[in-house]
Design a protein that fits this description.
The protein has 206 residues and is α+β, with helices and mostly antiparallel strands. The protein is built from 4 helices and 12 strands; from the N terminus they run βββββαβααββββββα. Helix 2 crosses helix 3 and helix 2 packs across helix 4. The two termini are 26 Å apart.
């Protein structure tokens, strides 16, 4: 369908509490200033975006590309809404996550990011993205309810590394494998205390 950013970590803030939320969402390039972003309807970010739309406000965001693997794991963690995933990243690293202020939005971005894309999700606007290679290794349909992300700034290191993901491939599945295994392990252990491990195998696309 077009060029995609498919492994950027998007950081936003809860309108009411100011608590950060981080996640990974596919982003299709529309033009030099606009991305189409698909968010699962039941995701935390969709819930947060609805708050902004009800208030008639755009939702500020920053997308970080090229980063420590702990950031990808933290963004995929299934923690309850209201827990800052960047704090989870710090726990995985065993030290505070170093952040720097963005230039055009009231957010912070990990200081070791290769590329940071700042902007706003536009309230009341929708666009089309897809079809897109999905995690079961099939093409998902074109979506007409994707959110519109308007870019306000791009910052980067000298000679930055653009981190990419081979979607609809085992590379895609490993992105969420560890987070899902940890959740399954925790749930199964509640009912079967003697369980020692849980694995999502490649044969079942994790």
């Amino acid at each position: 369908a077009g060029p995609y950013i498919n492994v950027g970590v998007t950081v936003v803030k809860d309108l009411d509490t100011g608590i950060r939320n981080a996640g990974t969402y596919r982003m299709m390039l529309q033009d030099s200033r606009t991305l189409a972003v698909f968010m699962e309807p039941a995701s935390h970010v969709t819930h947060l975006f609805r708050k902004y739309e009800r208030a008639g406000k755009d939702m500020e965001a920053v997308v970080t590309i090229g980063h420590h693997p702990a950031l990808a794991l933290g963004a995929q963690s299934k923690v309850p809404l209201g827990i800052d995933e960047l704090g989870v990243v710090g726990a995985l690293l065993g030290e505070p996550l170093e952040l720097v202020k963005c230039e055009t939005v009231d957010l912070e971005v990990p200081s070791y990011s290769e590329i940071a894309i700042e902007g706003r999700f536009k309230a009341g606007e929708r666009t089309v993205d897809g079809p897109f290679g999905e995690y079961p290794w099939t093409y998902g349909p074109q979506r007409s309810d994707s959110k519109v992300f308007e870019v306000s700034a791009i910052t980067h290191r000298r000679n930055p590394i653009f981190l990419d993901l081979f979607n609809a491939h085992i590379d895609h599945n490993y992105c969420a494998k560890l987070a899902r295994e940890s959740i399954l392990y925790k749930r199964v252990k509640q009912f079967i205390p003697q369980v020692t491990a849980v694995a999502l195998p490649e044969s079942g696309v994790c």
